[in-house]
User: Fold this.
Amino acid sequence: FINNMTHELKTPISTISLACEALSDPELAKVETIKNRYLNIINTENKRLGLLVEEVLQSAVLDKGDFKLKREEGDLHALLKEVIEKYQIQLKERGGKVELHLNATDHIFEFDRNHLTNVIYNLLDNAVKYSKNAPRITISTKQTGETILLSVQDEGIGISSDNLKKIFDRLYRVPTGNVHNVKGFGLGLSYVKIITERHGGTVSVESQLEKGSTFYIELPLISANYGK
Assistant:
């Protein structure tokens, strides 16, 4: 893992360094098309670095098995809208779209905002990464008794039945076939599983090759006011 991580981090750092060096040439910087090209490279690689650092931080959480959640009362629907708003840039780069169907009547409960935000980002990242074409993602919530069910559905390449058994294993990455731009260390879904279970919830997935996947996260509505 450390060797892979070091290699993955060095590549964007080197690319950014070379692009900055090119932009320091006053003659090149005068040419608008060339300048914009290098600025786009820096922007893209900077985003890639951010994602890699986030995966390293999530790895630290997985290594520290005794971490504690910081539960506070929050609104899951508001959190979903906030995350999707911040995710618009990544979606626009791929021509993607997210549809929201927030049908749960009770969506205010106690959860760890930081970790649950990361869970949502991870599921969105997977939906985008494993889509050959412009990603089409549907996020839904519904009430299931004293729990809330969150689903994230995509129209991507799908997952075979053999791989479905392994996708929540740490460092496991689904074979991508003709999708070549998938980066990362395979930590995302194992992190999703651990954080969901620490909330007292469950995570599951349904998938069909070439049709897409749907991830389900069911969380207990833990709140001082729930049921009153």
